[in-house]
Amino acid sequence: MDTPSKDPGRWSSQVNRAAHEAAQRIDDTTGESAQRAAVVITSAVRLMRWPTAALLWLSGPFIIATIMIGWAADGSMGWVILGLGLLMAAVAGAFAVRRNRVLHAVADPEVLAAELRVMVNLTGRTQQAGAVFRDITGGDGWRVLGRLRGLWRGATLPATWVQQVGELPRARYFAPPKIGTTVTLSVAAAWLVPISIVVAALSAIGALAGSI
Questions:
Q1: What is the pLDDT of residue 194?
Q2: Which of 100, 113, 93 is nearest to 42 (CA)?
Q3: Does the N-terminal peptide bond of residue 51 adopt cis geometry, omega within 30 degrees of 0?
Q4: Rg (CA), the chain
Q5: 4: cis peptide before it, omega within 30°?
Q6: Is the pLDDT of residue 3 over 80?
Q7: Are 179 and 148 in contact (CB under 8 A)?
Q8: Residue 70 and residue 94: Cα distance in Å, rounded?
Q9: Contact present, 139 and 44 (Cβ < 8 Å)
Q10: How far apart are CA 88 and CA 62, in angstroms?
Q11: Which residues contact 29 (CB under 8 A, 6 or more apart)?
């Protein structure tokens, strides 16, 4: 069995070299995890480019119709319909803005991977945070974002981490709290399609019947 060197300087050098090698292994693992995560996230987001655009195209005409009916109608019911139309438009607008920003975030996977690596290092818990990225490969499409949100919930993060991550223009959309907002807006946009159809249809029927 080897025994520590009697030379303090040599022993200190051995310790420093071992610590550096261990840190390098962790850093390499973090980089690989961030690189794989960037590939998975980029593929998922790009896969959902057209389906998410379809959500806006499908609900858009009915939202516009609701607003026009509410604007043309008289009385308090007209204001209610107009308010519903504007509310739906606000949800659709918020989703459209977030969709464009997320698509921009994955425009350059290499840059995204570099920011994800920085994001993991900022946690101070590289193994725990790196595990989040290693575990997101089980989903597809926007399910990856939902899975990512759930995994972040189980991670213990420093109080200042959210503020620091907010300075990363791409990676911040795949970390709390923005990842939660993205998933929420996506669900709201999906529900907006049938809701806008029903609201527009009822408003049109009411207008034709002369009850508005």
A1: 97
A2: 113
A3: no
A4: 25
A5: no
A6: no
A7: yes
A8: 22
A9: yes
A10: 10
A11: 126, 130
